[in-house]
Specification:
homohexamer; alpha/beta; 2-enoyl-CoA Hydratase, Chain A, domain 1; Lyase 2-enoyl-coa Hydratase, Chain  A, domain 2; six-stranded mixed beta sheet; 13 helices; about 15% strand; delta(3,5)-delta(2,4)-dienoyl-CoA isomerase activity (chains A, B, C, D, E, F)
Chain lengths: ~300, ~300, ~300, ~300, ~300, ~300
């Protein structure tokens, strides 16, 4: 349903610049979802990099029931895949995502089960907690996740991208915290993460309370994204290049950095430092430090070093 | 006293652009404070929107004794007023506010009572806690508060606006964390909220430690305000329009959003998500979701929906 | 070693604009480290202002063993020096700092002692905790610290400046969170403080995970620094002027402000307010309030007031 | 209703030993509630001691609507009454309290208002928060509160006494966390405070999950009460004597102790110590230290010292 | 291995009083583990009560690899089983459990994999986190868990029982925090939960640092267990009776109580109250309140009420 | 002064049973303070055990200026002494300690310096923070500290022992939270640690608010001490035996246990578990696990194993 709404919105949105289809094809392994997934296409454009593509382009990548559980399986698998060092997330088709597929989810969200209000509430809470996990797995996965957004990123899409580590977008992208338009407070991450992701609280509140669109320029100046690209093709190239930079460095260093950055967000500086010291008392014993230092002395890039898998 | 200081500062401040008087009049219900208040003018420019105007224009809206308690009464009343869905705060006269009216407050702050240092301290602490409540009520009020600042926002004014949800200003506005100039560390909210409201800690520290003025452009680029308007008239229109957007949406969604955004600021992401799930297990059972979804399917704005009062 | 690497990098870095040597000389008391320090030059360019200069210019101010302990002694002394009200930190020579001097530190970091992994870890943890203190002392020192960065600020340099209160830089400065290049997660402060210092989490993650350089303009727009100066001479003047503004105000107000701003960063707003009230119940009893108010009434700057030492 | 249930329970409870009526009369100022209260009798058996008596003996002091708001008014007044240094709370009649008066409260709790589930929830939450305040005021009141329990302490009674500072009971007392018997999780304090008041978590869980009665001996050995008296008369004497000990000491010391003990419960040791230092930096400047030290040197009790009011 | 050690210890432990075999048989459904488990026997002695029996009696219920994952599956299933309202945990055979089965776990714990220290550490951390989950599932399961301990509860056994809600034991039981004897700090829960389960920190430290045995009497007086029974038969009866009391009450009340008790342990009182209010705003709308109140008015036990499943 | 008061109190205290002088002599290396200390006698009764004796017996071990700084030096040295694995603390002479030596401390505490109230407060706060450190070093020292108390433990003595890990006392000991008698709230640890050390909050409040004495039996039943001995001689033997048990076990296990127990006290269970896993990912790689396991298989005590120093 929401996808229907968005589609009609897109019709009105004249500025939409479609990315060249070749890029989309290039990035998805087989032009469609990858077994065992029906909504995600997984590929490995380069060694050590996993590309996760939201892939229901005909539905504007609206998040249906399958999506909410496939994301968990997908990122749990990535978390345990020693061959993967970085993840790139993008969306197939016209836009990144239209957000929750209300049509498909309606029975879950709009017709909750239970003998009385308490029992309906109990069941709803379990569902919400489960849906929250869909994006929290991105954060729990120790490999950095670069998300590349194009076209539009609506509702659940904002929940998704705020759980990623690095956000990129194309010049034609708009973002929308859509939930108040549907009569609910966003409950799968946007309200918790967006204020810790961008620096202007006034803007966060405005976006969440009015559901207005934010375009690429404001997304850049507010810090939601750290880079804007002219089109999807350039962005995907940029995302892969950035992912390559990360993948080329010591996974002990990179993944320890992600874990401690997230820990620091949720703790005082003193607590973050204590945890960091306890973390690094073992991690500094990695051979990667010696290997990296050696490369540096020889004026080689760390990317020339062969690091063991983690 | 502080208002005296500021007034002389304003004399020197050549760039001050006075808003057209018609706007000020239009916004205040009766051209002055509204019973039972002596420093606040309350009006209802549009259904569901409450406009609170700081209204001691001849004193540059300096915050006298009455103000500190009237704000608490006013926002407690608003919190309980089911007819109000959004609040707009602005200042009458030349500037938003000159901050604390030291002349009127001197006996409280400068001549504290008590038989010995401990007892004076005890009494001072009770006063500070009481004054802090003056602005914390804004945050505790579940209805979003849009503050529209013009001219100047000094000292206590910054404490006030950082407790609001959305900040707007005119091009001619300057902001000043004035307290160090009076020999004290700001103690009613600025030091606690400003760093969580704007994204540059270096700037926060500079403002608080040097008491320098910050003008509209820097306020915008730093994220203190999310929009700058050419003049007060345009700003008030803009504030009302924005308030209208918010007031037109489900109050269950809007007020739940405010409450959870504030909760998220003060907690880890994991704790924020847990609270959110517990909140929404009942709130998702609102009819507003169905009504909003129905409107969306019919391509109507959520503002066309008649939501029950909250 | 790292200094070697950086030096070669600088050779390639064509845009480096050297500050006039006269400024550097003017700022360091005797053209070199000040007894009892071998890596720091301490001077008092103006009453109440202490200037701490990283002073191993021939090594690009790389942080050797001596540096890590001298910083602690230096800031502990400053904390207890009633004649000092503000600190300015800068670097002698071509750049601010090349970061950790891996050559000198290698035995500590790369050849940790211990009979088994647990004991090596135990010893490493003690070292990390000790090194963290090198920058935490800046934060624990109640006097505001303004840091003026030029040329380059690499690795440990970012850990250092994020612990300062106000950050300034020259137009030719670049910043680099270097640690992942050496195979380790930054463990002396950057990962804990950088996300609380600038407003874009996407940018923080990008910098920490890719080790890319960030130049002055992005440092300014992201809020890492609050001012950019054309060259080092102008920056040092600007830093001293800003320090003078702070030093001229009540030390009770200024140092109470710093302490409470740091407390607020690590606590909820409610807890910060409670602490603030408890702090000010005594601090408001200072004569500085009366003196400052008196000056204000007489339209004098607070800088004309003679405040007692703190 | 609950009082009905309890009364029938009491009929079966053979061991109930009625306190001599003279004591009850002696303690309540006029043999009944004190204006402006209808459920509380306030008296001042000794200077500096306020006695608050739950006084609906014919209803077993069941907590009706009036009670929930009168407690707030009562303790707010006590908090501001410089003549009061300690509070003793007890119950008139056969038992301390039968807990919530469901009959009187039914419209509030059992027939909540609202147009849909979300709005009913919203209203219920406001009520719960208000009822929680009824007991939290005891904790927010800086004067120590000694509660003397006899006969039975049921449901809301446990919520009440866990918010007090010192708990005493008679040998014939039983305690009951009654809420699960009525189909609800205790929501006005027991679940939050009981585990922090007694040392056995297994016992806490057993009491809260089975609603079984706990008798005086187990209340003593588990630490719920710190003293058990043979009968109500002895207990009231004991409570007054203990209150006298407290009232005779410096109110700066005593009230600072209560505030910091409660702060410590809710914070880490490091945070508690920091708050304590900030608290005492002013409070140590009281004349009470000198007066108390002087008395000690002269081998006099601190109770002989005349301390200023606080 | 540890089981070997313990067995020899038991040989020396003369006081061991074997429970009658009939009880053990009665409680385990089929005299052995229940499909799909190899270490757990699951039965339903009474409607709504699930009995989980550690069932490797020939190995003294030592915790082998299968056990660590079967517990997670088992309690996840129980959490989702609407027919279960309470869980009883006990051990088959001579003792409750000898703790970790080091022989079976050796490859995991003693021979960790990885190319260097950092990678070994990384893998070990994942294992520890996984093992911690084995007992945390007990806490995350909203149904109360009563654990009935007999004979001996060693090492991992203490980790297990401190995650349960109510602890019972026989007179012949001893408890031992065994880990320091094996050269490691307990890392799956004892150090985190034991201090919050019993009231004497001195005792907790003594037990954890010396690995001395604690017998039933001290377990009772310190609050580790809330009841001691003469033998296993009596204890199982008692456990079932207590479980029956809990199972007979409203599951909305009971499970909400467990969830909020655990929340309260880990939060300040103010935060616990806030969460509680948000929880109960929906849960109070259960029909169970009406049904329970009705029963109470009719002087019936809540156990006579038919509550809907949760 | 306080020592004077206490001495006269002791004169009245008839029950005082003096320990045999031979024990005291045996325990202190040279019958008096050990260079460089004037208030502490340090000895090494057994390898790996350090005995710290409060040693101003003629002043009842009252805590004078020297004591407050010597404790810090002493425990910092112990923390870094690889030959020490456990610490025993006791008092020389008639009683454990009379608490703060007000006579000697008067200039610090009673005559604080500063030009105005704020500056006096500032200086007082620094002193309090310094004095708090005197006992916090005990907690920061990773070696377990067993404290053996005899006779009396007053005021500062309670602050001291609550920072120790295990508390023992003789039958003739009384404890007194003395501070309210001197007109101040205890500010060096008692209010923060006592409630987390014993399980009855009612008792904690009673002790802190009335300054009444608590005798050995209540200290045992409340959990303040975990063992009571008939006299000092037996207690010292018991303390050494217990210390020997701890010293004989793996220092990696023992010190990791202490550190994590303290961490757990100040954090939620989830956070404690996370820290524990991060701690043990390296510490489990110690050879001590293998050595301990080997000993266990051979039925030898862990005390027979030769562990490397830590």
């Amino acid at each position: 349903m929401l996808s229907v709404i968005v589609r009609s919105a897109l019709t009105k949105y004249r500025g939409l610049r479609l990315p060249s289809q070749s890029v989309v094809r290039a990035m998805s392994s087989s032009g469609g979802p990858t077994s065992p997934y029906t909504t995600l296409a997984i590929s490995h454009p380069v060694e050590s990099i996993t590309h996760v593509e939201l892939h229901r382009p005909e539905k504007l990548n609206a998040m249906n029931k399958a999506f909410w559980s496939e994301m968990v399986d997908c990122f749990n698998e990535i978390a345990g895949d020693a061959d993967c060092r970085v993840v790139v997330v993008s969306g197939a088709g016209k836009i990144f995502t239209a957000g929750i597929d209300l049509m498909d989810m309606a029975s879950d969200v709009l017709q909750p089960q239970g003998d009385d209000t308490a029992r309906i509430s109990w069941n709803l809470r379990q569902k919400i907690v489960k849906y929250q996990e869909t994006f929290s797995v991105i954060e729990k996965c120790p490999k950095p996740v670069v998300v590349a957004v194009h076209g539009a990123c609506i509702g659940g899409g904002v929940d998704l991208i705020t759980a990623c580590d690095i956000r990129l977008c194309t010049q034609d992208t708009w973002f929308q915290v859509k939930e108040v338009d549907i009569g609910l407070a966003a409950d799968v991450g946007t309200l918790q993460r967006l204020p810790k992701v961008i620096g202007s609280r006034s803007l966060v509140n405005e976006l969440a309370l009015t559901a207005r669109k934010m375009y690429a320029d404001e997304a850049k100046s507010s810090g939601l994204v750290s880079r804007v690209f002219p089109d999807k093709e350039a962005m995907i190239s940029g995302a892969l290049e950035m992912a390559g930079e990360i993948a080329g460095r010591s996974p002990v260093a990179v993944q320890g950095t992600k874990i401690n950055l997230i820990y620091a967000r949720d703790h005082s500086v003193a607590e973050g430092l204590d945890y960091m010291a306890t973390w690094n008392m073992s991690m500094l014993q990695t051979q990667d430090v010696m290997k990296s230092a050696q490369a540096a002395m020889e004026k080689k890039s760390p990317k020339t070093v062969a690091f063991s898998k983690l």
